[in-house]
Design goal:
Elements: H1 5-15, H2 20-41, E1 43-46, E2 50-57, E3 60-63, E4 70-73, E5 76-83, H3 85-93
Antiparallel strand pairs: 1-2, 2-5, 3-4
């Protein structure tokens, strides 16, 4: 299972030896700055960690899951993240825990 925002706040507070309240303020300020910067300039690069960008998706045809009828999916702008080399290497160094095999009936 992954880390949620509260877990991240606790981890930052512990590793930076700061109060949880201060860690929460720092995390919220960081996320707000990233969101604002993406909205205004469309790109943020954190060397060694990765790059946040904005991607423009074209309108396209699709199918309604309920009716199967063809619909037009409107164009939209979405955030994207590309991990940096150091993050790729760090993730590759950790071996994921194996999930228990599903039992056959």
């Amino acid at each position: 299972m992954g880390l949620n925002k509260n877990d991240l706040i606790n981890a930052v507070a512990e590793s930076a030896e700061m109060k949880k309240v201060d860690a929460e303020k720092a995390i919220k300020a960081t996320l707000a700055a990233i969101s604002t910067e993406l909205g205004q300039h469309g790109s943020i690069t954190l060397v060694g960690f990765g790059t946040f960008t904005v991607s423009h998706r074209q309108a396209r045809k699709g199918r309604s899951p309920k009716t199967g009828a063809e619909i037009t999916i409107p164009a939209k702008i979405v955030p994207k993240f590309k991990a940096g080399k150091a993050l790729h290497e760090l993730v590759a160094a950790h071996k994921p825990k194996k999930k228990a095999a599903a039992k056959k009936k």
